[in-house]
């Protein structure tokens, strides 16, 4: 077997795909059994094995034919398993962080009713704005357009758009404060949402 293995390694080192296929056929099943003990998931084990054989092909010119190919493959497999487990742990950590950051806000029925009331008051406040100011405010807030974009669309200067936004926000704040005891931060958050 040692002479045959040496011939296969020499073929692999010279880029012989038949030698590569022979190695794959000889060791895939054994390496799979080794890898699955660590990663537990068949799909992940197959991904690891794919990386093992890709690594083997990339480093084929550095393989020493006087050493055990099996030992070399197990060493590559071990390294690929560690790499996959580390990557998987990192992805799980990121997923958990994203989950905690995106926990949906849940409101009680009372809070939902209060927010609907706020929305109605905000809508009334916007409707009380002069027509041009209302148009500027809606283009910026509802459609998310930039001051430059709104200025170009309406044929006015960017400074005029900015002035309309300042005056609209002030008017809305004054209107809403008549009906709601808003803290400035709450008002800012509310206006940011709507």
Walk me through this protein's architecture.
There is one protein chain. The longest helix has 33 residues. The mean pLDDT is 84. The chain folds into two domains: 100 residues, RNA polymerase sigma factor, region 2, helix turn helix motif (Rna Polymerase Sigma Factor, Chain: A); 85 residues, Arc Repressor Mutant, subunit A, CATH 1.10.10.10. By secondary structure, the chain is mostly helical. Helices cover 80% and strands 0% of the residues. It starts with a helix and ends with a helix. Keywords: Sigma factor, Transcription, Transcription regulation. This is RNA polymerase sigma-70 factor.
In the CATH hierarchy, what is the superfamily of the largest domain?
Answer: RNA polymerase sigma factor, region 2, helix turn helix motif
CATH topology of the largest domain: Rna Polymerase Sigma Factor, Chain: A
The name of the CATH architecture of the largest domain is Orthogonal Bundle
- Low-confidence stretches are none
| Sheet with most strands | none
Sketch the topology as an H/E string, one letter per element: HHHHHHHHH
**What is the average per-residue confidence, as pLDDT, rounded to a whole number?**
84
The strand count comes to 0
Going by helix content, strand content and strand pairing, the class is mainly alpha
Radius of gyration equals 33 Å
Primary descriptors:
Rna Polymerase Sigma Factor, Chain: A; single chain; 2 domains; elongated; mainly alpha; transcription; RNA_pol_sigma_r2; Arc Repressor Mutant, subunit A; 194 residues
